[in-house]
Design brief:
18% strand, 18 helices, 5-stranded antiparallel beta sheet, alpha/beta, 16 strands, 7-stranded mixed beta sheet, 476 residues
């Protein structure tokens, strides 16, 4: 059955390659291919390596679909249409921890090696070509595969450096978090931006001389040359597929060497220092489980301020998927490593400052969707978060409640904890603020704000007497 063009929504992040375009039709993810891309797909699907990668869950599951399902941009039907597996929650590399970016890089290189072995390559090397099933990375850009041409380098090398390798080197060698750098520019970190930070003996650190200084010098030397001229020069110099494969193996070896284990931060031991009694913890855990499991099974749960993932794990036992958000990259990295070791595929940890969440970015500000545009959760957990936003970051309570409601799907619920002004944690935060600056930070005010945006179905005062939990159905 043909789909009306009004039902097929083009994916804003899929427009740079005219050979193929991704569309959303309901919950389905479809990709239109032009004649050349369709021929590449048929060869790819008939290979040995590609079905093996799909079976190993390293590449997203893909199948042929009727060409009439999506409209072509030119008005002519696509030569082929593919149906892709839907990723539970789309994230961006600047929301990943160091180990997440490194594991995504290693998967990308593993896939490229396998492709080269059967005469294929990938025409780009962007970190955005990967997504996550929980703690498992998965390659999603099926349209990136094409036959390799002898004598040509990897076309995605520069992209890989800018969106993957340079961010990893920035953090591994200098201890600087890469997330703000990647968030600031969708195309990644330019060699010219990073080179001044790696002078002197820093030039000798793994990968710096070859992939930063020499690569940058080659870019400047060939700035006036066309891509065809550069390819001709490489062929004349004897560049071969074997050399390309050796280069990929070398990059893979380098990425495996890069590591970063930051020292503990204030948030790394927050569950120990936050002041909950054993009775508080038990009551809070029971409330969370009841709230998540009390109705229809949630498809998506957001755990805001997830810290070590205690409540994310509880929610994952009763939901299809949980996105665990925490602002400290070190805490997220530790959580990711644990989830990876557990083989957890239903909890995705992300680095995100709740007071400064990821905005829309890229072309026209929509190529990379902002966090709020991607989040439409059945359940939002906001445990021990409100006081940090309202007092610690000076966000007015009505704004906090509006934001939580905006992250929730209609009919979904917000499970939120209000820390009373007399609670030790709130008192500590208020001690650093001018007296009387938060006259509206009160329990009754908070309840009124919640009730204005939904229906409070449950409330529980914790045994300590200074914290109250609420479950509010938004719009109910």
């Amino acid at each position: 059955m043909a789909i009306s063009p009004t039902e097929a929504r083009p994916e804003p992040a899929s427009f740079r390659d005219p050979a193929n375009r991704v569309f959303h039709v309901g919950d389905e993810v479809l990709r239109g291919l032009d004649p050349q891309a369709a021929a590449h797909w048929r060869a790819l699907n008939g290979s040995t390596f590609f079905p093996a990668l799909v079976a190993a869950r390293k590449v997203c599951a893909t199948e042929d679909a009727p060409p009439t399902l999506v409209p072509a941009a030119t008005g002519s039907p696509w030569a082929a249409v593919l149906r892709h597996e839907r990723i539970p929650f789309v994230s961006h590399p600047y929301e990943w921890s160091f180990s997440m970016l490194r594991d995504a890089a290693l998967l990308h290189l593993e896939i490229l090696r396998a492709a080269l072995g059967e005469g294929f390559t990938t025409k780009d090397g962007s970190a955005y070509n990967l997504q996550w099933r929980g703690a498992d990375p998965v390659f999603i850009d099926i349209g990136s595969f094409e036959p390799v041409r002898d004598g040509e380098p990897w076309a995605g090398y520069r992209q890989f450096c800018q969106t993957v390798l340079y961010p990893l080197m920035l953090t591994a060698h200098l201890g600087v978090d890469f997330q703000p750098w990647l968030r600031a520019r969708v195309d990644g970190i330019e060699a010219d931006e990073l080179r001044p930070l790696f002078g002197g003996t820093r030039r000798l650190r793994p990968g710096v001389l070859t992939h930063l200084h020499l690569h940058g010098a080659m870019q400047h030397r060939n700035a006036a040359a066309s891509t065809t001229e550069v390819r001709d020069q490489l062929r004349a110099a004897g560049f071969s597929r074997e050399l390309l494969l050796a280069t990929v193996r070398g990059i893979e070896k380098l990425v495996r060497k890069l590591d970063h284990r930051p020292a503990g931060s204030h948030w790394s031991d927050y569950q120990v220092t936050c002041g909950y009694s054993a009775r508080d913890r038990v009551a809070k855990e029971q409330f969370v489980v009841t709230s998540v499991a009390g109705g229809a099974r949630p498809r998506l749960v957001l755990d805001l301020g997830a810290n070590d993932g205690r409540y994310s794990r509880l929610a994952a036992g009763h939901a299809d998927y949980v996105v665990a958000v925490e602002q400290d990259p070190a805490v997220v990295d530790e959580l990711y490593r644990k989830l990876r070791s557990e083989g957890q595929r239903r909890i995705l940890p992300l680095v995100l400052d709740l007071a400064d969440p990821s905005p829309g970015g890229g072309w026209r500000g929509v190529e990379r969707a902002g966090f709020a545009d991607r989040a439409s959760a059945d359940v939002v957990l906001a445990l021990a978060v409100v006081h940090h936003l309202a007092i610690g970051r000076n966000v007015p309570l009505p704004e906090v409640v509006d934001w939580l409601a905006g992250l929730t799907a209609p009919g979904g619920s917000v499970v939120v904890e209000f820390v009373h002004p007399e609670d030790p944690m709130a008192t500590r935060l208020l001690a650093n603020k001018p007296a009387g600056i938060f006259p509206d930070y009160r329990r009754d005010t908070f309840e009124t704000l919640l009730a204005a945006r939904g229906r409070i179905t449950e409330r529980l005062e914790l045994p300590s007497g200074t914290r109250t939990l609420y479950r509010t159905v938004i719009g109910g």
